[in-house]
Amino acid sequence: NSLGKANITCNKNGIPFDTQKMTITSGIRLGTQAVTTRGFGLNEFKKVGNLISKVIESLSKNQEDNGKIESEVRKEVIELCSKFPIYNHLKEN
User: Fold this and answer.
1) Average pLDDT value for the chain
2) Which terminus, N or C, of the chain has the lesser number of Cβ atoms within 10 Å?
3) Does residue 65 come out as left (phi exceeding 0), alpha (psi in the -120 to 50 range) or beta?
4) Which residues contact 70 (CB under 8 A, 6 or more apart)?
5) pLDDT of residue 88
6) Signed CA dihedral, 64, 69, 71, 73: sign only
7) How many structural domains compose the chain?
8) DSSP letter at 12?
């Protein structure tokens, strides 16, 4: 939920050899096709990973209110995505 509030969309996934119950998922999955289609490269994926880490690390320290970090990361996500428009091929030169 905190990642979603930071504009990072992912879904929960189980991971191999997880010790948690089957009903508890410990992993997350990102739709990499969507961002590679936009033109994200290695540097952008590293940035996304860092943003995810920032949200999760903050959430682990303060589970009650992660709003400040969510807001900061949301701004960074919007800035990053604005550099890679979905329909960039339709832009006029």
Assistant:
1) 90
2) C
3) beta
4) 2, 5, 6, 55
5) 67
6) negative
7) 1
8) E
Look up residue 81 and give its two tokens: 């995505």
CA distance 76 to 3: 13
Q: Kindly tell me if the per-residue pLDDT of 87 is higher than 80.
A: no
Q: Which residues are CB-neighbours of 66 under 8 A, at least 6 positions away?
A: 2, 5, 55, 58, 59
pLDDT of residue 92: 65
3-state secondary structure of 29: strand
Asked if 77 contacts 47 with a C-beta cutoff of 8 angstroms, the reply is no
Task: Indicate which CATH number applies to the domain containing 65.
Answer: 3.90.1150.10
Tell me, yes or no, whether 21 lies in a domain.
yes
